[in-house]
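not sure who needs this but someone in the group chat was asking about EamA family transporter from Gloeocapsopsis crepidinum LEGE 06123 so here u go. i didnt clean anything up, its just raw.
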Amino acid sequence: MIQVLCAALLWGFAGALAGRLMGGTLEPAILVPLRFFGSFLVLLPFIWRLPPSHKELPRLFAIGLALTLTQVSYYLAIHLSSVATGLFLQYMAPVLLTLYALVRGESLSRPKLFGLGFAVVGAYFLVVGPQGLAGGLGIAYGIASAFLFATFSYLGMGMHAHPLTVLGLGMGVGSFLSVPFTPWQKILELSAMDLAAVAYIVLLGTVVPFGLFLWGVRKIPARVATLVAMIEPVCGAIFAIFLVGQLLSPLAVLGGAMILCGVWLNTGVSIKKSSGA
């Protein structure tokens, strides 16, 4: 689980940093394809040194497609509604995975189900707040991003290929699909500071955290991994205090505490049992 916690921490900082950068020349239409291209180039040696088996290639393509469409639907959601709406709806992924687990007959205790609900309400308080969700087509894209993130996480379970190989091929799929929509002229006009920021987001906002997340879903169920990843907005909100001076309201603080409590209810009991065994 520590891998997913570290991933959420890095995602939170990268998200706060990206929020600051996107007000300038690094608009989403530039940052998203560069994130794919840069990550693919960084991970290319891992694909070469640690190639996957041919049997896993169709599933790897599906993972890459799910990852790409997750990013696209998320940015369409925030473009057509708001950042808060897109982020909150994407973190409905653990709800979808929990429903899927229940349909398949998996037995989940009441504390775990209560913890999930607690975390979802907390995410609403922290991310959305009193202004509520923005309506329109953005909500549909936000729900789609939740489904796709859940699919990406679920497909990542049980893979025999190295997590960085899985991620590298996924980023390769995203790079290929991004080529026709990439504003190359704007990219060529980026400053050295912009490129340095992109390099940080590629390495510590994408390659390392996504690699850690894929490593994590090999050890814990995707349902739990996506719930633990909900700590991301908590970390992002804390980092935003120092990066952009955005203070937290009492409701946001309550929401963050509820997320942490919900995660603990789904992980703390099992950790306690395993340590006592």
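also The two ends are 18 Å apart (CA to CA). if thats useful
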